[in-house]
Fold these 4 entries.
Entry 1:
Amino acid sequence: GQQLNQSPQSMFIQEGEDVSMNCTSSSIFNTWLWYKQDPGEGPVLLIALYKAGELTSNGRLTAQFGITRKDSFLNISASIPSDVGIYFCAGQVVSSGSARQLTFGSGTQLTVLP
Amino acid sequence: SQTIHQWPATLVQPVGSPLSLECTVEGTSNPNLYWYRQAAGRGLQLLFYSVGIGQISSEVPQNLSASRPQDRQFILSSKKLLLSDSGFYLCACFFGGAGELFFGEGSRLTVL
């Protein structure tokens, strides 16, 4: 089956620093999604990418859909304490006639130190 | 508006007791619905998905079952809970035609 390798597993950074995390796959995806999960809550969608090479920003967040369609990265600029949480990547292969399914990375735990 | 409601939010149950977690969605019709489990605050494991009323697909054979009695209702059940069933259970749904999966608030299950 499809697998996503997400790295790093965890990060400890100083407030104000930039953050970068990425996901790679052995399979091609049509869609890449990035989520953030706060403790005790469901994941919240941050950015959705639909085209190879697409670069999309959402405030201090920037994500890119890799040209090969097998990878994606998420950057967070000028981190703040509320950026703490677990970040998940997810890839989707859209095929007609079947239920949509996402393959999730294992998550990156981000800690922002004051 | 499009929303996903899960309840209960937290549940503490003894081993061997039954379980029922409920998920309802609003603002869409004939959605694809999903149950995920998350252990130890990390990876998301797909348990069940449903493309319509009465249609359930299981991804992982285990002690749990799912049902979809109505278009926008998805229920996760167990007849006898195991310690290993503890975790954070998330209901999810695709809204609209975009490939964006949205999650409910989650239900925290502790089996003692």
Note: The two ends of chain B are 38 Å apart (CA to CA).
Entry 2:
Amino acid sequence: DTGVSQDPRHKITKRGQNVTFRCDPISEHNRLYWYRQTLGQGPEFLTYFQNEAQLEKSRLLSDRFSAERPKGSFSTLEIQRTEQGDSAMYLCASSLSGDSYNEQFFGPGTRLTVL
Amino acid sequence: AQSVTQPDIHITVSEGASLELRCNYSYGATPYLFWYVQSPGQGLQLLLKYFSGDTLVQGIKGFEAEFKRSQSSFNLRKPSVHWSDAAEYFCAVHMNRDDKIIFGKGTRLHILP
């Protein structure tokens, strides 16, 4: 296993279109996180899963955003009716929840450009 | 609410010079503290972390950071920078071990030859 992978790496879309991103975590990791990073900012938390359950959603995650992790492995993040303000890097991270601290490992991100 | 402040948006140093990147956090208790590095087109890489104990922590690539409780600071240092250190550096806090990470806005490091 080479780490967290994300697909696609880049996505250009027109305003109003729907887009879906995929994240494959490190195989034994039960926690999966989504963050968004806009230009000149640090990553901001969007949501996270423990196994299949979505445990927390940020207020940044508007109704147009939906995330799933149906089998507790890979996750998808869908944005409906994209807006120019959605242009950002979407980062996925995974970790193994346990008794001790477990590092969140980040994927390379999906860069979304909304025209 | 907890927050992380990195007061320097850009820093430029000459290759071989020493480096210090500043970070202050706001939180009632001592959170877990981190420094990440992000190179263009790359994901975030953890440089070092502080949980408790010795306030001077060593990381990868020759970086170290010092936790100062009285100043709520966690500054990153390197005695001699290399051109390959040019990247964006993020200070971050983590309230609970499984919770979300809160990042600062980042400091972009430029290296002069």
Note: The first strand of chain B starts at residue 3 and ends at 5.
Entry 3:
Amino acid sequence: DQQVKQNSPSLSVQEGRISILNCDYTNSMFDYFLWYKKYPAEGPTFLISISSIKDKNEDGRFTVFLNKSAKHLSLHIVPSQPGDSAVYFCAASAQGNEKLTFGTGTRLTIIP
Amino acid sequence: DGGITQSPKYLFRKEGQNVTLSCEQNLNHDAMYWYRQDPGQGLRLIYYSQIVNDFQKGDIAEGYSVSREKKESFPLTVTSAQKNPTAFYLCASSSFSGGAKNIQYFGAGTRLSVL
């Protein structure tokens, strides 16, 4: 069963606009969420995380929003830049557990 | 500088052969992980280790084996029992502080193909 879902396999956004990537989860025990960025043939790079005690976390151009009642989180990138073109993975972990469960990823393409 | 080194970058396996993927970290992290990525899929956990000489199966451990004899090293062996080994393999590590949440950091990966 897919406990972390990224329902959009791909997304194209004009340079300078906002990119919004979405992630849904089903396991109510998840209490920590992360976003990773991945270029082809490279390992994922950590971007930003959020704990379930918060509903928003910001780091520069990146903001993650968490809606616990809807079991939904989103990553906002503004303004979008060509270097943001990559695959973005959402991941989650449960309390007391170091294991991460990953979504299937969303390929973001920024159009110049 | 600190990081996670995976080698080789590309690896080819013949039928019936065991191959070993190397993962070394100099971040002084306690926990290490092995993931497999297939096209269009997320990362799936193969094995993980939170401490030297101890490791646990992940979601897809069948056909794989690991060892953790040193804190810095967590090699993965893909055995002949793994019938579909072609994939991109990723190693990760994190510091482990009980209930505190820690970020996993990844190596550059090894692409394994079957000849």
Note: The interface with chain A takes residues 4, 6, 31, 35, 40-45, 48, 50, 58, 88, 90, 92, 94, 96, 99, 101-109, 111 of chain B (CB under 8 Å).
Entry 4:
Amino acid sequence: SQQGEEDPQALSIQEGENATMNCSYKTSINNLQWYRQNSGRGLVHLILIRSNEREKHSGRLRVTLDTSKKSSSLLITASRAADTASYFCATDAGDDMRFGAGTRLTVKP
Amino acid sequence: AAGVIQSPRHLIKEKRETATLKCYPIPRHDTVYWYQQGPGQDPQFLISFYEKMQSDKGSIPDRFSAQQFSDYHSELNMSSLELGDSALYFCASSLGLRLNYEQYFGPGTRLTVT
């Protein structure tokens, strides 16, 4: 199985609701990054959290990291239809970047 | 703010042809990464360069080669193209090696091999 596995695989919510996506990994990491990918477009970097950080905020995004559980979560608050996309976590363990399968988020207007 | 530039954005080639993809990192970024994302697949790491030297190698086929030039742009050369090479090829850049540095992706080059 691969590093940086996200769950749920698909998430559908109403506009204005919060969306939480989780990412688990297996080995020790240097940092964990969350990316967004719109259909047919490149990955867009959202936020990086270092292994010695526990929480990080960026606008409506909140990322947490629990190295003891080898997991991270991405919370999008007050979601908008424009947040509809796939969200990937990627772990950096010093050898290479490992992308997870992604969570496909659908925000309904 | 300037972003990572990839060219061309779309490329159509026939089997056994060659292709060259280019990546221009964010100004002052000295590290470039290449990823390949097949249809419905996760982006897969191919290769990376730091200060014009190969720093890491992933699942890059032997038919592919890449290099980073003195101005830090990078080129991915693909020979003897196969149908399975059809994919979206991402380039990303960062300042310094990946360790604790954010990585910024370009929009990708969509390669179609017919």
Note: The interface with chain A takes residues 6, 33, 42-45, 48, 56, 58, 88, 90, 92, 98-100, 102-108 of chain B (CB under 8 Å).
